[in-house]
Amino acid sequence: MGIKLHISKVSLHVALAVILCMFVWVIPEKSYSSDQSVVHLYFADKENRFLIAEDRAVLHSDEPAELGRIIIKELIGGPGEGLMQTIPAGTNLTAFYITQDGTAYVDLTVEITEEHPGGVKSELLTIYSIVNSLILNMSEINAVKILIAGGESLTLAGHIDLRLPFKADMLLIR
After folding, report:
1. For the chain, which residues make up each domain, given as ranges?
2. How far apart are CA 75 and CA 91, in angstroms?
3. Structural contact between residues 168 and 131, judged by C-beta atoms closer than 8 angstroms
4. Residue 15: pLDDT over 60
5. Is the pLDDT higher at 37 or at 135?
């Protein structure tokens, strides 16, 4: 019963944080400068063992939340030649928020779990593809919380606990 109460408190805190962000952090829909920026997107190598950065030119936004959305949408779109997609096809971004303490909330559709190939390593690469691509490109973000279909999920595919925010993991990058 104590565990259920803890999960309920965590869910309540996440919901309150997201609601607070919607009222405190007003995010314009789009505010692009005329320049493009190069971001490093992290995709799996062909053996699905490590993450490798792929440089990608994207429209630069002066708004951190919009740049975060752009990065996630580029990850969902997949890599160029030579690397493997880490986010299952059909997955969409439904919401993206950055709290004042630097935690990014990435809300993805259920396809990320339903279409995920499974396995501990694959799940790690999916999570850290998202986390590293955001944190290592954006100084405004120091942690990433992954939500699925508007709420918390225990795992992506049964292995890695998603209830707490993630920090970047450089050990997975080659």
Report:
1. 2-172
2. 10
3. yes
4. no
5. 135
